[in-house]
Amino acid sequence: MSGDAIVRLEAIGKDYGAGAAALTVLRSVDLTIGRGEFVGIVGASGSGKTTMMNILGCLDRPTRGRYVLAGEDVSTLDDDRLSDVRNRSIGFVFQSFQLIPELTVRENVELPLGYVRGARITRSKRHARAVELLTSVGLGHRLTHRPAQLSGGECQRVAVARALANEPALILADEPTGNLDTKSGEDVMQLLFGLHAAGRTIVMVTHNPEIAARLPRVVEMRDGEVLRDGAPHGARESASVGANDEGRAGARSDAHEVRRASGTTGEAR
Questions:
Q1: pLDDT tens figures, 45-85
Q2: How many folded domains does the chain comprise?
């Protein structure tokens, strides 16, 4: 583990429902992720990794336990505060890109910059930041295009640029290569590896055993618990279990979720 902790989960539990009908999907999960780490999360369908990613992304709250993100306890924050934390401290990269089709590429990347609580970022500064980020991912020539005019790989690079807009403490990537061909997927992985080399903290769900085997650290989930945490020994087998079902499930993050993450539902920031 490198540097100080960006993520600290302490005895995290998550139940859905109540009483005899309650379903426990996370069971006393402890996890610490240091600044600058690149961590993969793997596991079969029903293992709890999606719920854990939702909690890491402040899209859901734990039933029990404590979640400290970049030094702030976010376990019991109300919706407005969680919305602020999402926009300020977390960059999201979804499997299905979740770009706003009516907006240009540049406008999609600018979006999170308009929802920073207490900050007045001028339009010209938002524009300049978006251009800088899109140029850094090789799309400086696509600023005025809309998502439908881009390839899948280009859309995912736009999503990575958007995730970086507010200099987040944590990047959460949910099966970022799942909808891409082999070459485009490799391009996106090289982009993520480059961000990691530059010191970014990245947590990525993957169902691809070859990708998991390339990551420096892999957390394997099973039945709501951390089964294994460390170098990706054995990740190849576990990542392949349930891959087809989970690959489809990875597209669960619908437009509403990305609008929550990016602040486009009108939530206070």
A1: 899 999 999 999 999 999 999 999 999 999 989 999 999 99
A2: 1
Read off the pTM.
Answer: 0.83
119 is in which domain, residue-wise? 35-63+77-262
CB count in 10 Å sphere of residue 116: 16
CA pair distance 161, 158, nearest whole angstrom: 5
Is 186 domain-assigned?
A: yes
| Closest to 56 (Cα-Cα) out of 6, 16, 96, 129 | 6
Contacts of 229 (CB under 8 A, 6+ apart): 31, 217, 218, 219, 220
**Whether the Cβ atoms of residue 252 and residue 60 lie closer than 8 Å to each other:** no
SS3 content of the chain, % helix, strand, coil (to 5): 40, 25, 35
In a domain, 154, yes or no: yes
Helix (H, G, I), strand (E, B) or coil at 144: coil
Q: What CATH number has the domain bearing residue 228?
A: 3.40.50.300
Handedness of CA 2, 86, 126, 251 (dihedral sign): positive
- Whole-number pLDDT of residue 118: 61
Q: Is residue 12 part of a domain?
A: no
Q: Where are the alpha helices (DSSP H) in the chain?
A: 49-56, 79-89, 105-110, 123-136, 152-163, 182-197, 209-214, 235-240, 243-249, 255-262
Rg (CA), the chain: 18
Are the C-beta atoms of 27 and 9 separated by less than 8 Å? no
Is 30 within the bounds of a domain? no
Bridging pattern class, strands 217-222 and 38-42 = parallel
What DSSP string describes 175-194?
STTTTS-HHHHHHHHHHHHH
